[in-house]
Amino acid sequence: MASLAEIRARLQAAESKQPGQSSGGDNAIYPHWNMEEGASSVLRFLPDSNTKNAFFWAERQMIRLPFNGIKGEMDSKQVIVPVPCVEMWGDSCPILAEVRTWFKDKSLEDMGRKYWKKRSYIFQGFVRENALADDKAPENPIRRFIIGPQIFATIKSALMDPELEELPTDLQRGLDFRITKTAKGGYADYSTSKWARKESALTEAEQAAVDSFGLFDLSEFMPKRPGEVELKVMKEMFEASVDGQPYDAERWGAYFRPPGVSAPAGTSAPTPASSTPAPKVTEAASTPAPTSTVEADEPAVATAPVEEKPASNQNAQDILAMIRSRQQT
Asked: What is the domain count for the chain?
């Protein structure tokens, strides 16, 4: 496990490379986004068992593709299909290669933000104070947490504080983290979340759980790295989404699906959320990420699709024409 000084050095290195940057199938994931407004829960983060990971979290970058329902289903509502952005692995993303060009046109900026990659961070640890009355804790009390950019900024800020002497994940001298949910501008707000000021050791029960169950390897909960076929499918889905088409389970269901949709019968392609090595924390240096008015602190797979104003047909047609003309050159 990396030391606090090494983590600070890596965070600073990542900052210097990114100028201008402003749930699962079990109940191991703790859904803090379901807390009532004004409520708070206390978490105690733990290290990653993967010694190759310098941090105690793993970063995901996903692109949400909205579709006008599911092909063949009557009265089907909008569905969201999350696909991995391959910039996680330092590769060129075919979707963002197109989306980046949209920000040169003011009329396409909203469309660009809708298809821009969304970051989230996977942590693990204990829930020491639980604000969710109906939460069903699993047998293994070591939970996983999907943390959004707003909360992560608070976590990261404290790590860079020179007065912090020990890692917050230290089993004897670590710190609790209190997530507090409020509201701002009609959206959930977590800006008042904070670290505890006083160090504390794991309890006997918590230490026993670590000894008994072991720590998670966070890389096992990352999306599968797409291959050539998956990249082609992602690009095809992206163009269909922009064109306002419904999701076609027969064409794409073996690769990427909306939450709750099963793979077509007889398919043997891997599911989109299998294990993979931890991605590099990299960013395309040539183009800064666009500014977004809202940074969600909830995973796309764990919330109902957000109703968005559809883009005008003219905008979609212009974008598709641009995409197709590039493919022909």
From this structure: 1
Residue 328 tokens, joined: 């022909």
Determine the residue type at 129: E
35-58 CB burial, b ≥16 within 10 A, e <16: beeebbbbbbbbbbebeebbbbbb
- Distance in angstroms (rounded) separating the CA atoms of residues 126 and 121: 16
CATH number of the domain at 256, please.
Answer: 3.90.198.10
Predicted local confidence at residue 33, as pLDDT: 95
> Which residues, in sequence order, are CB contacts of 107 under 8 Å at separation 6+?
315
Pick the more confident residue, 30 or 306: 30
**Strand boundaries in 38-138, DSSP class E:** 40-45, 58-67, 79-84, 118-129
Q: Is 118 left (phi over 0), alpha (psi -120 to 50) or beta?
A: beta
Q: Are 146 and 219 in contact (CB under 8 A)?
A: no
Provide the domain limits for residue 45. 4-328
Asked if 261 contacts 80 with a C-beta cutoff of 8 angstroms, the reply is no
Q: Residue 84: name the closest of 102, 105, 62, 114 by CA.
A: 62
Which of 118, 120, 148 is closest to 218 using CA atoms?
Answer: 120
Question: What is the CB neighbour count within 10 angstroms for residue 302?
Answer: 14
For residue 123, what are the contacts with CB-CB under 8 A and spacing of at least 6? 43, 45, 56, 57, 144, 145, 147, 218
Q: Using the predicted structure, report yes or no on whether residue 2 has a pLDDT greater than 90.
A: no
Which has the higher per-residue pLDDT, 1 or 200?
200
Strand partners, 118: 62
Give the Cα separation of 280 and 51 in Å (integer).
Answer: 15
For residue 171, what are the CA distances in angstroms to 94, 137, 328?
A: 42, 21, 58
- Report the pLDDT averaged over residues 172-201: 94
Q: What is the mean pLDDT of residues 47-69?
A: 95
CA distance linking residue 37 with residue 33, whole number of Å = 10
CB distance 51 to 1 below 8 Å: yes
